[in-house]
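Could you help me review a protein record that somebody else here produced? This is what I was given.
***
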Amino acid sequence: MAASLGDTVARVNDALPPPGAPRAGWSSARWTAVGLLVVSWALTIGLYDRIPDPVPTHWNINGTADGFTPKPWGALLSPALLTLVWGLLSFGPRRSTDPRTGLPLRDMSAYQVGVLAVIFAVSTLHLWTLFDARRLHPVGVAMGVLLVPLGFVLPRVPRNHVMGIRTPWSMRSDTAWDTTHRVAGPVLVIGGALLIGFGLLGVTSAWTLAVLAASLLLPVAYSWWATRRG
């Protein structure tokens, strides 16, 4: 199964434009992220009267809301945060470039899909708040929505200081970086899919935490092991 998933991740990476390919205008990933921002603001305004007051803004380990913020700040917090994160990630890292091609990181298709994954994950959490789905585990689903697309595109992202498994070992060289992320990709896809499933099924938080920890720590451990082996 892992080998088959690894092949799938590799095929997705091959389907992306080459890292050094020039980009004309905005990519579909950027436009999709903007569309999510517009939808988030539109739903917040259109469903404002249905949004609970105070608004859930924090969830505990069991997926139960335990932190609340009164309107209007609670309702506007998520779309405002989405807009800020999108702006910082899309236009902020000006100096971060692919050392092999010189292409700015923020103009690479894989990076833009990663930014879209972040926006999509926060949007998922915001929609949970709007529709008040309290019986499920919104944080687990949101993390899964983030990890799955990241798992597909991270093997395509060059060594940088903004996005990826940035450990002292993976940052030593391009080879160490690439090796780490070829393993991290399938691990994140599997972990993210499990998190989404657990969240939708209301599986206990212990399993959610275990899968999340494994998804994040296994690539880190592998980067250390690969460096020592090499």
In short: The radius of gyration is 19 Å.
